[in-house]
Amino acid sequence: MEKHAVCIPFPAQGHIRPMLNLAQILHSRFDFHITFVNAQHIQNTLFQSQPPSTNSSTNTNTTFIFESIPEGVDDPENLLSVIDSILTHRRMELPLRELLSELCSKDDPLNPPRGPMHRLPRPPVTCMITDVVMTMFALDVADNMGIPAVVLETASACGSICYLHLRELFEKGIIPLPEANCLTNGYLETEIDLISSLRGLRLKDMPTQLRTTDPDDMMLNAAISCTLNAIKSKAILINTFDSLDQDVLEELKTIISPNICSIGPLHLLAKDIDPTSDDTNLAIGSIFSSKNEDNECIIKWLDLQEPSSVLYVSFGTIAVINQEQLVEFAWGLANSQHKFLWVVRSDLVRGGEASSINVPIEFEKEIKGRSLLVSWCDQERVLAHPSVGGFLTHCGWNSTIESISSGKPMICCPFIAEQVTNSWYICNVLGIGMKMSEDLKRGEVERVVKELMEGMKGKEMKKKAMELRNLAIEATMSPYGSSFVNLENLVNDVYNTAHTRKYVKFSTCMPETSK
């Protein structure tokens, strides 16, 4: 029996990237057929400038296929609208059922497959891998059709265990916040004693979805519901490694029944896959690297710098600041007198023009010749470069695990969701980061940059970060590494389960959902 995984990421880059890494690993290392199901607008965006071989209708490699399903919203780039569609209306459920029905059914002259599917023969589906957000409908589809399902949790282990306890905090009346001034009156300093592996954690260190007074808040309820759905799956996969999060992983295993599998860092597991081995791998490698020429210029600039002399600065793909914060932050970097590489997205400033960012002319003159501002870079390559000595980050988990894998200490500037939990964990448990105040004032920015790049604390954090880097490599770069073994065991388990289950053909009788 051939192995065939259907992968369903949430339509945001921070969720697609690890799912794509996992799919590529399963495809190249474990001989899986892959059907990668994007939301329609993501499919259009990712492949509008990509080689024709990436498209399911023209791809000659039938073992890794990209498909798409509609989001069911007017503005698919509005993530809140997409989440509402997934959480409340489940508008992506029917298209997914139809797609899976075709993938699971044998040739039937009375029921020919739609679209290009007749050109792409694939074995029956062995398992579904769904993003934790997509569990709102995907797990029901898998269960109804007899398909084993596992969940990819794109948050950190510490973020995951916090999400798991939101319902208990809700039931105890701790959240939602009793009143609006709880944001400023010290209420968020309340210590959480529910998580033994995260001693000293406060409400302010929990995911920001809890910072609401509305019990019907969509984001709070989405966080609770997605977690409760995830624990119904066969396994939960986390992009981490055993020695990084041992205490948290052990606690997770004692409080929920699904198998908890640490299978990261995924980008390291995928590192040695030859991108030129076939059309699909080549296309995958180019999906998030459409600006390769610009990136080569960045790498050449880094090549000219002294070892560990450059601070890499990036706030990820979603975080926004206002113009005043931009100016203060920029001058803080400049006043530190350290070299930096700063990714300044065109939409970084809230309410600003989408096509440009306005930094003071005096600032540009001050940093000329010693720093670089760019709109995009290949973050994995930049963090791995020996000239980079530290990372000022929003603490998204992809960025965090990439920084750890490269042995880079961090300045933590979290914005939303479990980024604040990651920041607390980086600083208080791992000891490889320092927290920067939220107002982004120039004096504070200058202080933390100097401390990281030249201070004693920065040197200590660098040493610890390098130790964790070595452990990350150990977990992924050999067949005996913990993450490789965990993934191999999961593959065998899912494969054996698939032998014992029967697929249920799609029916037009849908469960009742909100309209």
From TrEMBL:
EC main group: transferase
This protein's UniProt keywords: Glycosyltransferase, Transferase
One Gene Ontology molecular-function label: quercetin 3-O-glucosyltransferase activity
Gene3D superfamilies: Glycogen Phosphorylase B (3.40.50.2000)
EC number of this enzyme: 2.4.1.-
Stored PROSITE patterns: UDPGT
Keyword Glycosyltransferase appears in the UniProt entry: yes
InterPro entries associated with the record: UDP_glucos_trans (IPR002213), UDP_glycos_trans_CS (IPR035595)
Domain of life: Eukaryota
Membership in a protein family: Belongs to the UDP-glycosyltransferase family.
Name of the molecule in the record: Glycosyltransferase
Source organism phylogeny: Eukaryota, Viridiplantae, Streptophyta, Embryophyta, Tracheophyta
